[in-house]
Amino acid sequence: MRDKGLIQPTDELVEATSGNAATLRYFAADRLTRRQVDAWRSFAAEVPSAHYLQDPAWATVELQGSRTGVRRPFFLWVERGGVVCLTALGVRRRLPVPGQTFWELNRGPNFVDADVFDEWLAWLVGHRSRGVARLRLQPPLPLAQGGDDVETMLERHGLVRRRILGGWATLTVDLGPGEDDIRRSFRSATQRSIKKSLRLGIEVCHEDTPQGWSALSRLESDVAQRSPVGEVDESEIASISRNWLRQGQGGTILVARHGGEPLAAALLVVYGEKAYLPLTPSSSRHRELPASHLMVFEAARWAKSRGCSSLDLVGYSMMARPGDGLWGINQFKRGFAASDRLTRFTAIHERVFSPTVVTAAAAARRSQAWLHRARGGRDA
After folding, report:
1. pLDDT tens for each residue of 157-170
2. pTM tops 0.90, yes or no
3. What is the set of domains in the chain, with CATH numbers?
4. SS in 3 state form for the chain?
């Protein structure tokens, strides 16, 4: 079934010549062959900023994971002389307006040559259609490694920086030292919390099982009631386990329990020499039991044992202020990594093709949120 969105998925859409007279061929498809997957991954190995969300396997997670919305994976890439030189993985998300969608290229594209990115971006924006209300794009390039120039290119093509999203920085834990040295690199309060958890008998176990998926989903829903984060359906976690974790090959799920009750959980994803913690929810009950601190330390130990060089805590809000829901999450993460481990990336940029539709969608979302709260957070 062909997609009717930003661009039409065919084997090859267009062939163009860049300013340096090297021919660039632009591709878009709703699936990749085995050879193409291998070419994508070979290219990603050469890109310092490559991210697991941009790997072809994550498209399967997006396709199979959620029951709450349609998130079709879509592959875009550029070849020069038959060699892949840019890749991007996008998903189409529905707006609460009949027939309207927006495209989100999350943690992509990956590229080395900024001129190739500039050429591709002009092609991408030029192949819009009326069926698309907006295009959202987040190149993963650190600001200190050319990200400022990339943001200039984005703005030149009509994309505007979305400051309010604020998720364009992250903190990382260096896993190079020994385990004791890693623990001593944490803030003193974090170290005390880890010792207290051990003294109280909190146990952290690997639970990449239906029971672990359920615990992680329920705890994330608990966090969503008090912080601006999204809920994660248990079926999506099962898809991640099946298509990515693969019994420890690509990561694991950790659950911290006390007396059998799950107090915290984490999704740990491994990609190359990097480990990521995209989900680390904790229960609002038993605040006197600091299970999350021990759980993150156990995640670091597990990742180090698998040969990872760093642990990405995945997200640090540059917009959070004291009292905000994300402020406490920021402070928690800073207990594991000092501010000199903060990396800022290019921000999420958007180009709105239909302001009227986006305005209507925002109003619909506000109405849905009000109705959800009026029902006490229960689904219709």
Report:
1. 999 988 777 668 89
2. no
3. 10-165+346-374 (3.40.630.30), 169-344 (3.40.630.30)
4. CCCCCCCCCEEEEEEEECCCCCEEEEEEECCCCHHHHHHHHHHHCCCCCCCHHHCHHHHHHHHHHCCCCCCEEEEEEEEECCEEEEEEEEEEEECCCCCCEEEEECCECEECCHHHHHHHHHHHHHCCCCCEEEEEEECCCEHHHCHHHHHHHHHHCCCEECHHHCCCEEEEEECCCCHHHHHHCCCHHHHHHHHHHHHCCCEEEECCCHHHHHHHHHHHHHHHCCCCCCCCCHHHHHHHHHHHHCCCCCEEEEEEEECCEEEEEEEEEEECCEEEEEECCECCCCCCCCHHHHHHHHHHHHHHHCCCCEEECCCCCCCCCCCCHHHHHHHHHHCCCCHHHEEEECCCEEEECCHHHHHHHHHHHHHHHHHHHHCCCCCC
